[in-house]
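Form P-L/3: holo structure prediction, ligand GDP-alpha-D-glucose.
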Amino acid sequence: MSTDRGKKSSSPTSSFVVVANRLAVDRIEHADGSTGWRTSPGGLVTALEPVMRANDGAWIGWHGAPDEKLRPFSSDGMQLVPVHLTSDEVRDYYEGLSNGTLWPLYHDAVEHPHFHREWWDAYVEVNERFAARAAEVAEPGAVVWVQDYQLQLVPQLLRQRRPDLRIGFFLHIPFPPLELFQQLPWRNQILEGLLGADLVGFQLPGGAQNFVRLVRQRLHLQTHRDRVRTADGRTVLARAYPISIDADSFHDLAASPAVEQRAKQIRHDLGDPTTMILGVDRLDYTKGLRQRIRAFGELVNEGRVDPEETVYVQVATPSRERVDQYRQLRDDIDMLVGRINGESGRIGRPPITYLHASYPRDEMAALYRAADIMVVTPLRDGMNLVAKEFIACRQDDSGALVLSEFAGAAKELRQAYLVNPYDINGLKERLLEAMTDSPRVHARRMRFLRKQVFENDIDRWASLFLDDLAGRS
Ligand code: GDG
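OUTPUT (holo model):
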C-alpha cells in the first residue's frame, strides 16, 4: 500500500464527486514523527478507488479524528475534501444512529436496534453538512455519487441546493423488508431522502423491491417496476448492482513470488497442516463468527476433525470498538476460542489461530492463497467482498468456499458450499463436505466461481451504475 504526505490544495471542484462517511485515507505517522495519509482498507474504499482515479474525482468524507477541521488536500492522486465531526456527533450520528440503529435494523435486527431522538437530530445535522460540502465541490451538471446508510438524507438535501446535479446513491448493506423498516420512527424521512437521487442502487434486486414497495405504501407515490414517480414529477430508478472487487489486481498480487513465499511460510508456521481453514471478517455481530467457531469447535470435540491435520485461522479485524455490542462480541469470541483451544489443543498446536488485528493487503493475499477452505458465514451481509477476494487469489481450481445463503454474494456464487449459518449442525456437515470432497469436485465448483468473479469485477459494477446514472436526465 503506498503512502503519501498529504499536499494541501485550495477548495477543489470536480465533475465527479463521491460522498461517503469516511475519506478514502487513514492518517499514519512516519518514523520521523511527521504524519501522512494512506489509502484505507475496507469494502467501500477497495471498491471505489480505481473508479476515482479513472475520473479524477473528488472524495468528500470524515477524516476520522473528531473535533478537527482540515483543509482539502490531495493524496495518492485523489482530491480529498474532509468534513469535520464533533465528538458528540461521532457518538450520536456515527456510533448512535448509523451503527446502533440503522446497521442492526438493516441486518435483520440480528442485534437489537436502539432508537434515540437525539441520535436522529445529529444524523440530520451531519447529513446537511455533507450535502452543503458536496454542493460547493460539484461543478455545474456534475455527477455526485453518495454512498451508504450513514448518508441517506444527502440526495434530497443536495438536490434542494443543486437541482442541476445528477445524483446517484448506492447502499452497501441490505435494504430491509417493510416489516422491519416500519419500526424506524423516521421511516418517511429516509425514503424521501433517498428519493432525492436520480438512481438508487442496491446490492440485490430484493433490496430494490423492498424500497419501491415501501415508497408506494408509505408515501403513496406511483411506481412501476423499478421506477418511482416523485411528488415533484421526477422519475427515480431503483435497481440492483451487486458490488465486486478488482479481481485482476488481487490475482496478480497473490501470484507474486513474495506472496507465494509468504503463503508457504504461513502454512509452515501453522505446522504444515493437511487442511487450512480461513475466516476473515470485521469483528461484527452480523458476520456469524459465534456460530462458525462453535461449529468448528464441536467438530474437533467430537473427533470428526483432527486438530493435528486441520487448522482454522480466523482474522477478526477490529471494528467499532466504542459501541457496546461490539465490545461484548469481542469478549464472547475471546472466550469461545480460548475454551476450544484450552480443551483440544496441545503445545504448539491450537486448533484455532485467532488474530484480532488488521493486516496489509499483501498479507491478506498470502492468507487467501495459503488457505484450502474459506468460511464466510454472515447472518446477513449486503454482499461480502472477502468471499470474492479469496476466489480471485486462487492460482488454480483448487480450494473451496463455504458461504452463507444470507450473504449477497450467494446470489452470484451459486457453486459455493452454501449454508444456513443459524443451523449449526448443517454448518458442520457442509464444512466436512467441503473438506472431504475430491479435488475434481472442488475444481468443478471453483472454475465456475472464478469465471463469475473475473467476469463481474469492480469496473463492471461501477460502469453499470454510472452508465445508468448518465442515462438519466
Ligand atoms: C460492507 C458491507 C459489502 C478486512 N480486514 C482487513 C482488510 N479487510 C477488507 C477485506 C474486504 C473488506 O475489508 C471487507 O469487506 P466486506 O464486504 O467483507 O464487509 P464490510 O466491511 O462489512 O463491507 C458488505 C461491502 O460493504 C462493499 O459494498 O460487501 O456486505 O457490509 O475488502 O479484504 N483489508 C486489509 N487488512 C485487514 O486486516 N488490508
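COMMENT: The radius of gyration is 22 Å.
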